[in-house]
Design a protein that fits this description.
The structure is a single chain. It contains 12 helices and 21 strands. The longest helix is centred in the middle third of the chain and has 18 residues, at about 195-210. A 9-stranded mixed beta sheet has the order 6-5-7-8-4-9-10-11-12, with helices on both faces. The chain has a 4-stranded mixed beta sheet with strand order 13-14-16-15. Strands 2-1-3 form a 3-stranded antiparallel beta sheet, with no helix packed on it. It has 3 domains: about 1-40; about 70-280, P-loop containing nucleotide triphosphate hydrolases (Rossmann fold, 3-Layer(aba) Sandwich); about 285-460, Ribosomal Protein S5, domain 2 (2-Layer Sandwich). Helix 3 (about 105-115) packs across helix 4 (about 135-145), helix 8 (about 335-345) crosses helix 9 (about 375-385) and helix 9 (about 375-385) crosses helix 12. Helix 4 links the parallel strand 5 and strand 6 (about 150-155). The protein has helices spanning about 1-10, 80-85, 105-115, 135-145, 160-170, 195-210, 230-235, 335-345, 375-385, 410-420, 430-435, 450-460, and strands at about 15, 20-25, 40, 95-100, 125-130, 150-155, 170-175, 215-220, 240-245, 250-260, 265-270, 275-280, 295-305, 305-320, 325-330, 355-360, 395, 400, 405, 425-430, 445.
Length: about 475
């Protein structure tokens, strides 16, 4: 009996419930995804192997004869969501929308469901497992998502959800959330690995069979990853992440996986008391609109995916009363700032060793890319020397340890956005005019070294230019 059990265990092996990694012996930590306690004994294969069957009506055809009209994306009515999805929802596609609690996932999908439910003949089934139908109705009234084609169902049983799909025959399915639905045929509590895998597989199957797009809401773990097994992200067609600081209203929608479109697009939304509103031009959120500019401010243009966003960086330099001066940041990477300050002190002779330095962004923007190094350095230099920079000045470039100014990715798109927003001067790396097309009305101040960039920026002061169109953007 013992030998038979050993042979069976050796034949079945062990597998990780998160990523599917297999091993012959049990281990406490997965060797692939490094997760603890996820390696369990895999079931031994039983019965004969699968044999060939008749393909029926689905015989392979030449690729030129395949109908593509049924696979084209349909717009959702929300332009920023369509931008991220690659044009809209594809019939039969399964979209997983993940994000932290309170970031606006349910509000966004309810707004989308309301827009789709206003179309003639549309039947959008919204299944909620976290709230009652009455609570969803109240939120729909608050954000203006009440539509004749929007159907609500409060279910937590997978069989009941599939029954609702069969009874209503919806054109779009929304499930909020996949972690709250459970199947009676699988052991485990709702949200567990086995339950999430079973629920997702059943919903994906019904979406593919009926050709209806399905939108699933997913929770995230403490480190920001999608909760549940890692295979969940492989099963669905699109994985979107909603990011945003709870202290600001801006919400960014990114796609980490998209079988039907790009993964470098970003959608911008504004979370208000009346719902979530798309922002087609969010640059005005990150730039102050004061009539008088003070020393210590500099504007840069960052790239969120392929979208350029103008962001203002503010710096304050004051004498320190401590043996170790403070280096405080908000919205800027602290390690990146420490490097820029060291280069500015050593290569540009800025007196920063005995001073506290505070650097922040406007509007809650987060700047982490190297292309903002030059703007940070110029803002700190302006604050340290108490010299204002031009109100029509923008800075683009990466600062090296030797003080050199390097070019950045997508410089042409950044310059075009700066010119569109009314900036007339741009401090850029040397050689930019020879490699990039310069927009009309924008003067390039090329610098090869940080000290040269500081001299050009402080000498480029001008009288305040006419009101830039930034004040009209964003809201």
């Amino acid at each position: 009996m013992t030998s038979t059990t050993s042979r069976t265990r050796a034949r079945s092996g062990f597998a990780c419930t998160e990523c599917g990694w297999t091993t012959a012996k049990w281990v406490g930590r997965c060797g692939e995804c490094q997760a603890w306690g996820t390696v369990v004994e895999a079931a031994a294969p039983s019965g004969p192997r699968t044999t060939a069957s008749s393909p029926g009506a689905r015989v392979a055809r030449p690729i030129g004869q395949i109908d593509v009209e049924a696979a084209r994306a349909r717009p959702t009515g929300v332009g920023e969501l369509d931008r991220v999805l690659g044009g809209g929802l594809v019939p039969g596609a399964v979209v997983l929308l993940a994000g932290e609690p309170g970031v606006g996932k349910s509000t966004l999908l309810l707004d989308v469901a309301g827009r789709l439910g206003r179309a003639e003949g549309a039947r959008v089934l919204y299944v909620t497992g976290e709230e009652s139908a009455g609570q969803v109705r109240l939120r729909a009234e608050r954000i203006g998502a009440v539509a004749p084609g929007l159907l609500l169902a409060a279910e937590t049983d997978l069989g009941a959800v599939l029954g609702q799909v069969a009874a209503t025959e919806p054109t779009v399915l929304v499930v909020d959330s996949v972690q709250t639905i459970a199947s009676t045929a699988v052991d485990g509590s709702p949200g567990g690995v086995s339950q999430v895998r079973e629920v997702a597989a059943a919903l994906i199957q019904v979406a593919k069979e009926r050709g209806i797009p399905a939108l699933l809401v997913g929770h995230v773990t403490k480190d920001g990853a999608v909760a549940g097994p890692r295979t969940l992200e492989h099963l669905v067609d699109v994985v979107c992440q909603v990011d945003g600081d709870r202290h600001t209203r801006l919400r960014l929608l990114r796609a980490s996986k998209n079988r039907f479109g790009p993964t470098d697009e970003v959608g911008c939304f504004d979370l208000t008391d009346t719902g979530i509103v798309e922002l087609a031009d969010p640059s005005g959120l990150f730039v102050s609109h004061g009539a008088h500019q003070v020393p210590g401010t500099c504007v840069t243009v960052t790239l969120e995916g392929r979208r350029p966003l103008a962001t203002e960086i503010q710096a304050l330099v004051v004498p320190s009363q401590l043996s170790n001066p403070r280096r405080t940041t908000s919205g800027v990477d602290s390690s990146r700032l420490a490097m820029v300050l060291a280069v500015a002190q050593r290569r540009a002779a800025l007196p920063l060793g005995d001073r506290d330095v505070y650097v922040s962004t406007v509007g809650g923007a987060r700047v982490t890319e190297p292309g903002s190094d030059l703007a940070v350095a110029l803002a700190v230099a302006s604050a340290a020397t108490d010299q204002r920079l031009g109100t029509d000045l923008v800075a683009l470039g990466e600062v090296g340890l030797a003080g050199e100014i390097r070019t950045v990715l997508g410089l042409g798109r950044r310059l075009a956005e700066a010119a569109r927003l009314g900036f007339r001067r741009a401090v850029v790396p040397s050689g930019t005019s020879a490699s990039e097309s310069v927009p009309d009305g924008l003067e390039l101040l090329e610098a090869a070294h940080l000290a040269e960039a500081v001299a050009l920026a402080t000498a480029a002061r001008s009288v305040p230019s006419p009101e830039r169109p930034l004040a009209a953007s964003g809201h």
